[in-house]
Amino acid sequence: MSESPRSERRAPDAPIPDDIPSLLIPMKGRPWLIPNIVVAEVIPLRQPDRPGHGPEWLLGWINWREQDLPLISFEKLNDSGQVAIGPEARIAVINTVTGGARFYATVVQGIPRLLRVNKGDPVEEPGDTGPAEAMYVQVGGDLAVIPDLDAIERAVTGLTA
Q: Shortest CA distance to 55 belongs to which of 102, 104, 17, 124?
């Protein structure tokens, strides 16, 4: 089983690495740019076991490794569009970082691409971010969004199947 990022946290005085193994994850709009430790697994798209009752962005619940996980639509949570299910859509299981829950799942639009992000590589792009976005960046010629993982986790914390 994948470990939570909590076990990967560095001591406050630990040096910042020169580069961070990251993933560029295809989404409906700009792809996500996140450290690869955040993604526990990418699995084939499937219908939720139980449809969601609650917020519009809660698509339902899936069972993953004997755990019930909320399946969310980032676009709906971010107020940036409709639920998108493209031909290459999959589900990304995301490790949490704040500890409110261990995992949640979100619909993504393809297979993530691994890239190493150097300290000075991402350049912030101006733009109005949504409620679940931290910032827009350009990295290695790609435009991407860094999702606000804390905001997403606050939204899914407390949901019950």
A: 104
